[in-house]
Structures are given as C-alpha cells and as structure tokens.
Amino acid sequence: MASSELILGIFYSDINNLIHDSIKNSENFSQEKREKVRMLPFKFLGPVFLTSGITRTQNWKIDLIESSLSIYQEQPQESGMLQSFVNLNSVFETREEITNLFALIGTPYTEDIKVIQDKMSGYIHPSIEQGLCINRKKIGGIFREDGFIREELNRGMNLIHYYLGSSRKMYWEEQVNYDCVGLIERVSNKDDKSSYLYTFDKDDPTRKQYLSSFPSYYVMVVLPDFYEDLVKETLELFEITRYYPNIRFIYLSNKMNKKVVYFEEFQEIKGNKRCLGLILVQTNESMLEAKRISSYRKYLRQALDINKPIGEVINKVNPQFSLHEWGTSNEGELERIHKILDN
Amino acid sequence: MDAKEFQYQYPINREQLIGFYTRTKHRLQDREEVEIIANFLKHQAIIELSIKEISTILNFYTKLLANDKNLLEFALEWIRANEIRLKYKKYLITTRYPENDFTIAIDDCISQFFLDYDNYIRDFFIDIKEHELSALYNVFFNRSDIKARNFSDLLEWHHDKVPTIFEESTRIMTNIITLRSGLSQIIIEDYQEVLSSRVKEQEAREEKRAKTFKDEVKEVGEFQGLLLERMMKSYCMSKDKIVSKEIENVINQFLTSYFKFGVFYEYDEFKDQLTRAFARDLHEGLTPPYKIKYERNEIELEVMEFMNEFRSINQIKILDGSAWKNDIAKYLKKFLIHFTDKLFEPKKTTIKKDILKPIVQKFGEKEEGPDFRAIFDLNLEIEQFREQLEASLEKTDYGYVKKQSIIRSKIQEFTMEKRKTLLNK
User: Which chain A residues are closer than 8 Å to B110 by Cβ?
Assistant: First the structure.
C-alpha cells in the first residue's frame, strides 16, 4: 500500500506504564511532538471517567474506536486521502501485570479491521510478551528490553502495514443480534453543541436488568464526544487538518467476554451536524427484539436523511424507550444520569 | 479454531490411509509397530528420510503422546502436515511481500497457517517441551534440514534456542517463539526459492519477448504484393477493365504487408524497398509479351520518380504506418490506373509525364511542362511553416504522437490553401 497519506503507529505500554512506540514516517518528529504522540495511548485507553464511572462491573476495556473522516468543504478532493481512522487495543493480562498494545491507523481505505485486530492480539502482542519472558529467563540482567520491544514493534508495524488495504470481509460476528439500551442524539454547529440520551424509563425494570451488560450510562454518553475530540486532536498532531472525524464504532468488552457496541451515523448540512448513536449490548436472554447492526443502521440512516423527529426514531429502534430527554452536555446533567440511571 | 474445524480445513483421506496401513501391516507381520508405520509413511512418498531415520523420530515422539493418541494417529498427522505445507507453499508462491522482506514473510505465514496448527498439534502430546515441538515442526515441514543432520543433533540445536519456562508450577505459553524457532528458516528458504523462480520466469519472459520482437521486425520488413501480381496476371489475360475498388484492395494489401498501425516509420527507411517491391510484383504479374514490353528496371524507375514526386509534396519525416498507408495509397492508385490503361497501347517513352500532368497542372503548369519554380517555392513555404509549427509545439506538454498529428493536419490545411491560391493566380 502506498504510504503517501498514512498514519500508522503502534504503542506498547509495559507493566510500569512506560510507553514504547513505533511510528511510520516519524523520523522528523521533534522530541516534544514524540512525547505528545506517546501520550495518546493514555488518553485513548485510560480516560478518568472510564474507571470512575464504572462501579458495578470492573474491567471494561476499549477494543476499537473507528471514525470516518470527512473533508472540510473548502478543501479539494484528491486521491489517496485519508478516509478512516481506527484505534485498536489489545490487552494482555496476567495475575501480576497488564500490558497494552495500542495502534493508531489512518488510511485512505475502509480496512478489514478484524484481520488487523486478530494479528495484534493473536500474534504481535503475544510475541512481545513471550519474547520478553524467554529473554529474561535466558539472558537475565543483561537483556536490553528496550531494544527488544522496539524491534518487535517495528516488526509488528510492518506486518500491520502489509495488511492495510485488504478489502473488508463479512464476519459472523457482524451477524449477531444486539439489544438497544440507549439512543444518543448529538447536535452541533460552529458555535454550540448539545447531546441527549434516550433510554428506558427510570422506573422501568428492564433498565435495571440490562445494567450489568454495559459499563454505565454515564460512561457511554461521554464516550462519543470524548473520542471524537481526541481523534481530531490526534489528526492535528500528525498535521492533518483538512478533515473532521465522525465516530462510527466504539467496541468495548470485559473479562466475562461481554461485548458492547456504540455505533453512530451522522448528517451534516451547512455546518449543522446531527448524529444519532445507539448503545447496543449482547445478552444471553434477550428481553427486547434484538436486531443486527445493519438493521439499526438502516433506521438511523433513514431518520437522518429525512430529518425524522426523535419520537419516530425511538419508536423504530426500541419502542420501550421513554421520550424523556436526558441532557448530557454538562457535569451536572451527567451526575444526574449517573445517580438515577446507573443504579 | 477447534480440532474438527482444523481437520476440515486441512483434510486427509483417513479411511484410505488406514487401508494402506492395514495392507502394510499384513505384509510386514513379523515387524514391530514403529517399523511398520515407518514403512507406511515411507510408501506415502512424502518423506525423503530412510526408514531407519523415520523410526528414530517415531520412537522419540511415541513417548510423548497423550494417552488417547497412538502412533498411527501421529503418523497421519505427519501426512496432514504435508497437506498444510502444500497449501502454505501455494500461498507463498502467489504472495508478494514489500521489498521481499523475509521477516514479514515469516510473521505472515506463521500467523496465517501455523498458529492454529500449533494449538491443534499440542493436544497430541503430554508434557512435551518447547524445543521438542520446535524440532517437530522442523521434521514435519522441512525435508532437507533433517537429512543434513541427525535427529538428536536437531533436538540439541532447538534445545538451546527455545526453553520451556515455568513460573512456580504454571507453564508459560511461548508458542509463537517456538513456531518462529522451528519455522523461520524453512519459510526463508521457501521464499528464497519462490523469488529465484520468479527471477528465472522473468528472464524467460524477457527472452521470449525479445525473440518475438525480432520476429515481428523481420515479419514487417518486406512489402509483399501478392494481390498485385495476381491482378496483373488476370488483367493481361482477360484485358477487362479493373474496377477502382479492386485496385484499392491491391494497394491496400501491398502497403499493409509492411506498414503496421502504431509503428513509426521514417520515409527513407522504406522508400527504396517500396519502389523495388512494387515494380517487382507488378512485373511478375505481367504475361510474357508485356514483360518484354516493360522491363522491371523501367517500371522501377517510373515508380521511383513517382515516389520522389510524392515526397516533394509530403515532406513529413516520421509517421505511423497507418498514416503512411493512407498518404501513399492514393498516389500508387493513380499510378496503377494509368499503367493498366496504357499497358495495351503502343509504348510511349515515359509514363511519368502523363501521370503527373493532372497533379502539376493544379500548380499552374504551362502546357509545355510543370512550373517547377512554383512547386519549389511552395515546398519551401511548407518547410518554413513546419519549422514554425515545430517551434511553437516545442513549448507544449503534448506527446510526440500528438505533436506529429497536429503538424500533419496543419500542414495539410496549409498545403491545400496554398494550392488553391496558386490555381487562382
């Protein structure tokens, strides 16, 4: 794949939270810029709200954040421009330690992300851990971990780069049905932005039954805005200012192999952007009419294209939702959600 | 991927293989099981080792097999490994790694093919050490290395590379390092083989292309007027007037035998050949009385003078075959019509004067002969106009073909305009 406009960096955070990196075309990065880039994994993986907002179930982790990139209207279209931006995370957990392998990928193609994710978590990350373990055992004190990790990261980065550009395939995971437990509407223009959550009524017992299936309402409503801003900041750091990001997917999972998907569609007309996103969960016994992501996407797309009122959207995605609008724009509103909906 | 999925992905004909094994067993009733299985494997023609070498390896891994596995199962896995190798090699042949990077080749092949295999094969053993597995991969997926050194040396070599690590009583999984240790060298050698065969293929292709090109040049290097000869023969016999369309076909065939579309020719490179060939084929077609009447040299001279005249009007140096064909065809047609018209009449001293008359008359020729001065002036003007055109096009981004095409059409326009002016004078 041509690397004319490409962001590719992988970061390994060891047990001491020391970040090792390998970034494509980063030879001319200043020390200050490299430090800023190194901070990105912390920002993406360890936002404060993610740990403080989860009270019931622990160990939820971000697996994937995917954003589409739109070009600002005044900018000319060119071939080879970035189209998607993906953050992938692999977690390796033993009794004593947790390490992360994190990748930032910006490419002109819609990548087959599953292939890359599988390589990261099934090959690159384990090979670092296993290599470290064997070398510590064999060589002991004189083993230079830094050099070894850098070598493995370069190796991993080259492998990921080789896989970039593969066409996206359909996987059985995408055929799984999900229950919708929340709808988030985000509206923004040049000067202002606001967002709202729609879900079950606070007294609806179904809400409580689903609480263990996702981190918390508080976390889920903060995620899209937080990551959209972070992707924008990342692009600016890589001196790419022609685009603005739109969150497409956020995948989370926990130790019990529970999976949560937040996915979003957007419409932008003359600087006014309206995003509709759904919080989808997998459960063993569905209490709702579970549907595939493709069906939900169809509803959202139709709703945005003809600017349907929110009541009609709710009726389509989950008629059990109440029409009560939970503001999520300031700390007070978020606290209210946390207190009322997360308990 | 579980065991069943894996077996489905890399199938072997288990029933047939067990049938072969049973026959081997019947044949070698008095031998030990290890020897029988070694014979069975040897006869599958997939292993280049001797029966003794195979027996050594079987004996070693028998001790490590899990309780629910037996030696025959292990032998069948050896055969399955061969299937995997075939698929892996097929994949490697079709894959191109950036800058032929061996490290990417190793990582890609291990993660694509052997990671699942590692999960699958570990279930066959109990308490197998990492270096024993690493050596097993070497045995299963390589044929040359194991022959080069004996099995105990191989085990020793792997022992130094991949330790089996325990933390307290828990075994640490180091399967990727084991796979790399067992397979890296094999993948490198296989990919080197693929690369060298690609180079050989490329060389063969280039050689073939060069040969084809030579043949093509040779093929287009001659004018062949087959229809011309035939037409003249039948004309001499029947004396029926030849229709214009037939003449056009004859000339078209004659010119097409040499000029190819998209190939560029310089006038000087084909002029003599065209003249000679046209005169030769025309003369060949004449029946004896007319052959005596018009000698070949005489016709050749007439054609040559005619071509010189054509050249004085069309001075473009290089044109594509199709363009030359179009330009020359109408002049050769006129020549041929005139020649056939006069063939049965009493011979005049020269054909050229009669043929050229209508052409040069356009330039205001007096009754006595052409006004060569006017033609010379016109040619000079055309040449000057061409130089100006070439200079103006030099600054543009047009390619060579486009430039030549523009020059040609502009000069034609210019020539026509000038001719009109001359005629009006």
Answer: 123
